[in-house]
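Bench log, entry 3. Co-assembly request; chain sequences pasted below exactly as received.
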Amino acid sequence: MSGWQHHLIIAPILIPLAAGALLLFFDERERVLKAMISVVSCLALAAVAFNLFRLAATDGFDGVYLLGNWPAPFGIVLVVDRLSALMLVLASILAIPTLVYALARWHTAGAHFHSLFQFLLMGLNGAFLTGDLFNLFVFFEVMLAASYGLLMHGSGSMRVKAGLHYIAVNLAAALCFLIGVSAIYGSAGTLNMADLALRIGEIEGERRMLLEAGAGILGVVFLIKAGMWPLNFWLPGAYSAATAPVAGIFAIMSKVGIYVILRLSLLVFGQGASAGLGLNVLLYGGMATIAFGTIGVLASQALGRLASYSVLVSSGTLLAVLGLNNGVVTAGALFYMVSSTLTIAAFFLLIELVERGQDAGASVLAVTMEAYGDADEEEEEVEVGVTMPGTIAVLGICFAACGILLSGLPPLSGFVAKFAMLTGMIGTNVAGEGPIPASVWWIVGLLILSGLAALISMTRAGIRTFWASMEGTVPRVLVMEMAPVMLLIALTLALTIQAGPAMRYMEATVQTLQQPAAYIDAVINARRAGVAEAGGPGGGGGI
Amino acid sequence: MLPYPLLSASLVLMWLALNGFTLGHLILGCIVSVFASWGVAALRPAKPRLRKWYLLPRLVGIVLYDIVRSNIAVASILVRGRKASFKSGFMTVPLDLQDPTALAVLSVIVTSTPGTAWLEYNSLSRTVLIHVLDLVEEEEWRRLIKGRYEALLMEIFE
Amino acid sequence: MSHTILVWSITFSQACLVLAMVLAALRMSRGPRAQDRVLALDTLYACSMLLMMVFGIRTGKDLYFEASLVIGMLGFVATVALAKFLMRGEVIE
Amino acid sequence: MMDHARDLPAWAAIAVSVFLVIGSLLTLIGAVGFARLPTFYERIHAPTLGTSWGTGGIVMASMIFFTVLGTRPVVHEILVGIFVTVTTPVTLMLLARAALHRDRAEGNPQVPAEAPVEPPADEGQPAPGE
Amino acid sequence: MEFVLSLGIGIMTGSGVWLILRPRTYQVIIGLSLLSYAVNLFIFGVGGVKSNAAPLLEEGVPVSTMTDPVPHALVLTAIVIGFATTALFLVVLLAARGLTGTDHVDGREQPK
Amino acid sequence: MTGELILVLLVCLPFAGSLAATVLLRTDSRVLAARMAGGVAFACLVLTAMLYPAVRGGGRVRLDLEWLPQLGLDVTLRMDGFAWLFAMLVTGIGCLVVLYARYYMSEEDPVPRFFSFLLAFMGSMLGIVLSGNIILLSVFWELTSIFSFLLISYWHNNAAARDGARMALTITGIGGFCLLAGLLVLGHIVGSYDLDVVLAAGDKIKAHPLYLTALVLILIGALTKSAQVPFHFWLPNAMAAPTPVSAYLHSATMVKAGVFLLVRFWPALSGTYEWFMLVGIAGISTLLLGAYFAMFQQDLKGLLAYSTISHLGLITTLLSLGSPVAAVAAIFHMMNHATFKASLFMAAGIIDHETGTRDMRRLSGLFKYLPITGTLAMVASAAMAGVPLLNGFISKEMFFAEAVETHADSVLDRILPYVATLAGAFSVAYSIRFIHMVFFGPPPTDLPKPKPHEPPHWMRFPIEFLVLACLVVGVIPSLSIGPFLHSAVLSVLGERTPEYSLAVWHGINTPLIMSMIALLGGAALYFVMKDYLAKCDDGPPLFRQLTGQRIFERVLVTVSWKWARWLESNLGTRSLQPQLRLVAAAGLLVGVVPLYIAGFSPKAPVLGEVDPIFAVIWGIGAFCALGAAYQAKYHRLAALVLLGGAGITTCITFVWLSAPDLAITQLVVEIVTTVLLLLGLRWLPKRSEKVDNAVTLAARSRRFRDFLLAVSCGFGMFLFSYAIMKQPVPDAIASYFLEKAYTEGGGRNVVNVILVDFRGFDTMGEIAVLAIVALTVFALLRRFRPAPDSIEKPEQQRIQNAYDDERPERSAGDTVRDYLLVPSVIMQWMFPVVITFSIYLLLRGHDLPGGGFAGGVTMAIAFLLQYLAGGVRWAEDRIRILPLRWMGFGLLMAAATGMGAWFLGYPFLTTYSQYVALPFIGKVPAATALFFDIGVFALVVGATVLILIALAHQSVRMHRVRSPEAGKAEET
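Structure output for the full assembly:
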């Protein structure tokens, strides 16, 4: 592998960082330039992510990047494996449509949208790539800080109130994160995940107990992020208050928690004495989350809340399914994660367009509301959209597609995802493996119910928005706003058609996750550049 | 280049005091002090005219001595506690000093001397309100401030 | 002998400073008014600064000097802000 | 404890001890006064013991100690002294003035009113802005 | 040492938790500050507490006597992030106060 | 053309046509759309017909395409005789419906959309028929639900259409989900989703413990789709659809999908007692109730809808019996029902179209106006009634024959003949009613369209064709439908194919007698009830109030709305406090439970170890923390000051426990935080202790709970930290850092080397956080609006300004000028000093305590001091800080330093350090880490200043009315 390719691993962090920093040099009025920088960065990011994705699937790829050229347990490492590459691709795929959507109008609703957006991407990518617990904390904070800014982008009472709750809960979570990480450091003496996985077997007695307590506290943090009931009440408020493009990119934020849980539970707690730590919490918590999300989906009147509760359903599904700790099901869950992230993003983007049509004055009102009380904001151009023929039809089709995706109906990827998980639980893949445990039946029931609830809610909402109130008024929608939604839906369609290859990737991913030895080995024995001897552990490593 | 030579020199001294004396640090200190004095130049403070800067050490000496003296005085009052009969109070002292820097120096002297505290300067009436812990003889204090410090400061600054 | 004196005097002086801090803390909680509390905080800062310097003597390292210098040089900023808040109701006008 | 200081000459040890005791005692006395004096305006005098010679004593002690120990002049502690001396008046002044304002606003009779408008007659004043 | 420090951490945590459960935004921000002190000290204490063993390399001082520098670095990062988030939370609570007119954490007064 | 290709085309063509129709969204393309749809449907019909040779005599065509092979989900298309027959039905009736709709739809309707949905529906239906993979089948199954929803709600401005469509979707959706689950369980049992494999594994399935589960789930799917009791009620409500839709969905396709499924899985699932009971009860009750309800409908389409339900019940009943002959009858009746019901719907549509109403109470004597349609309708309804020489008669005969047979020897067996006869009588009654009330009797009086006349010929053509089919099949069954039926039966039953004969005349036997009884009884029944029926309300007498629809809607609203809302608000919360409480409790729980489980017992502290001075310091710290907690509600400033006290304790602790870097950083941060909070304090509302001290009991208990939680958290944290501190330090990575810091990192301050080198990446992230927060703060404050009660200047300023204003000799602002006169001088002169100090901290960081962060904050304090001294205007008049530039520069500098290593072939952030010999000066340490630290420094300065100044600007901004440069803190 040539040298420059190896540096690609850090590019997903550096590109948005540099773009975000560069954006600071330009005044808010240079909108076009800022937008250009942002778009170029996102495109570059996508190119890099796809490249890494491709590389991660090839054999013999050295996905470990030693920052500062320090050997593994001491310095910080970035690790690209199939899972992190998948998440990178997902994030960058999501970034482009949401950014384009934002360029239509929202990026002018407040200061520094583009910088914050880039920093959010940086935080996301960092969280996906890092192989170090404390570095994970740092990137969590980067991501969260940017999300605070983005959530309140556009200001307004709703957003700020939601932002207050969101920040307060996340600050408490951040403190827990610190406690957890330091407890792990105090009991295991390392921060590197791979090293931790190595050491965990040797830790005994009180130190093991402290380690497990630390891991538990850490788990609470990730569950807060992932939105497990009853730690998820911040989520509907926050997501539904955010502007459409922000909510769109937030779709992947709750998946970060899932990602980390998946990563740590299989890497560190996959084997050995602490194996399966907290799996039951995931299982039952996940089921409770599905139930709560389902209830919320039914109880939501506003589309934004409906979408937010769909996020919870999706999180709950993933948590519960991960709690089963079954390879085939986990592969299905990965597929589901990709599919539901795209779906929810598309839905959040769509909601704004749809609701714009509900009240003829709404779009103007939204703009004035944004600008209210602010002296130095130049006036928004009122004519933001053009009434296109067929707008309603396109919106309606997209809405129906979202409904189909959310409720897991064919022919889009929501069905394939649900099927992939279900078949792993009760279908052919467990044929003849004895009786099916009760918890699986519960999950199956909840999954079906949640799909049904989404169906009921979405028809209710769709009928209300498209057929009962939209008569005569056609929302003003720009092609630039419609295209991202359609792109995302098209992606789910592509995912459906290419379900076979996609599932193969997911299965391979799960296989690598289930054999953490290779990961650990790659990290610990990663070669330092320019150092003659293989970068083994230093004097104090004690490995 | 060097709008405030005295300040720059002091900064170099401070730098050397912090880092220890080496040639390298002397050069670095000079660079830093030039940089810092540009910063202060941007603030455009009222530039003090130090007429008789050689009187400064004398002032410092007097003040240090007075501080020692009043330290003892105040400490004894406090140590005696409730038995001490002291009468604290406010007094107004008219001032002739005009230069803000000189006023600042005076205020530092008055306040860092235990037992007296500079409360309020009135630029219209050009008086200062001082609170004294042991206000036995008001004129005594006034004389102390005007004669002992203000006169010297007037000499140095104006 | 002289060493013993030094040890004792250091201990004594630390005790004095800590006691002073206790008194300042008491004043801080008792008030009765905001300016008393602010002044108490200022005193607390000063005492901690001295305590750190004594600690430096005790350990024979001047690593802790910067911390005391920070208090000496910048500690007043917080107090100034507090005082200005009391006087003007806002810190920066 | 204090093994590093065993080589310290006796005179230095005693000088350091004396300065330490003086400095900390003065600070303590100031704090006692601060805690016990009845009015705010009296209380503002007390901490100045700590910030003047209290600090001074400890600074001196530290300087002597490190100079003798390290056999090179260590003077940076003097900066602490200088800055404390320069900045303490600022805080006291601002605080006291704020207290004065509050007392006046509440009509507390024990504080003097704003200074009279006319400058005292015995002042021959140069024109402002000269 | 450990006992005193952990007791202190406990008390700070208790006060902080009490405050973040209060309904006023200002209480919450003070509580978060207290909690971040406690957490910083906790991280700090994880490396083991040693007096006079600063991790600054000097000739003749064996490194084995020095305290663990890693928690220090972690605390430094945590302090910075804590400062940043406090600032952010403050501004958000001000904004919320401005927009809703109340300093209740939910943006409206609790019905009595 | 190969069979495989035809299969693909059959499924794809309709969808392609559907997509093409959406392109023709313009309304003037209605004819074009109709032609295209007709063409597609006809092509499908032809294609299907072409496959007949391949499926004749039990043959099958099969196509496998990989989709998700790992999970057993493939695109397997498979056509056998039964599928062929059904596909013919779907495509054939599809053609006719398109033709009919071409004339039926009015000018205003967006016709392309209609045809688009219709074709898509046809495609889905063909998909169900042709699926060779049971999961693929459920895919198409759900698609039919979705498209039927869109078709039923085609006239969506009509509330009834919307509700009907939604109900259809909900019910069939539920069914679809259950079906999927059932099919998965089936897959679990069989180990494959391939239809052929599943069908071959009938015995294995029936013996499996999960058989009942699978059966129930699949049956729910099938019965909902086929509108069987108790899921029948969606079908009548779906009659709000345009008539072509009803004709298509409710005769040949949608509702037939359910029975199709039953037939499809008949070999694998049927024949057990469970099957017989479940399917039988549903079928029999549907048969009877549907027929009974149909009699009392006043809506033409309603009558037909209930009749459909009843006929489907008949088919279901036949299938429940488990005998091969009954299955043959079921398949046969499926075909027959489709023909006559489609024609009847179309006839009803014509009547509706011509008269403007479908209410039988208003219709009368139409035969005069619509003679041809009337005749056709009469024949069709005769077929529905089971009149001899029509196709309905033959299959009904077969049903009666089966009904008298004994099957599972249960109560069902005994009642079945009577039920069948009764239902037959009802069906005769409503058929007669349909004809008699509409076409005979006095001329109509209050028709919305007064002059009905015959429709265009091509609109009537489909009916003519279908009626002809009824006749042909009815007269010469074995010559017409016989061979096709046989290959269908063969493909379903395989070896179990029974002997049966399709003949009109079997001699006088029990079924014939039953038929006669039903015919005569039905006629009699109608003429008895004629007068009542002519006037009565819609719906059957006993059940009029108890309509499934209403119950369903109530239940749906209750469960999915009322209960959901109640649950949501009770299981969730929108307040912050409970959330934080939960976070704290969760943290406590997971932190303490392991300790408890492991039986943790803390080592008792040794008193001698405790340094009393340190203990006293912590006494102060704890005191301050508690004080802050106590005071924060009413005495904010006191709380702030006490917080400062707690902070200084922390600093001393850092000093005491060997962390000078931390102490410095904590101190500077402490100062900035205090100022920050003070800046914010100005905008908070006044709060006095007196106002709200009426504490309710609830509040008191809440407080007590919080207090307990806080105390336990504190105690837990105490235990936890004590445990962890008492733990011997593990063999940590620390020793590596201590050893390599100087030799490889080039610095003596190990903490700083970690920060800028070993773990420099953390620092980069951390400064990014700071930058982000600064940006957010700035963005938020640009939109800042203070609450009304804090817009005014603070009280103090008002008093002081009033004082200045009162006195003529004073100008405004004199007080503050005097106040700051002396302090500001000192603060100004401190400016260069602090700057020097900050640079000092920055430069020495690598070797001694300090570093970029502490230096940066110090620098920011230097700026802050000037703002404090002179106010915003004064300061900005003199110093122009461009915080955003500082931040951008800092970030880029840090990143660029890291990237510099690339050019030497090293990874990001690899540092390089060396001693450089300079003239006069000697060796100077030069590490690239310094540049990184400079980046940190610049960013911290920029971010801190931006945060503070943006906040400070608010005071100024509020007093300035819309002046152009307001809020542009970035430029100052």
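The longest helix of chain B spans residues 56-80. The radius of gyration of chain B is 19 Å.
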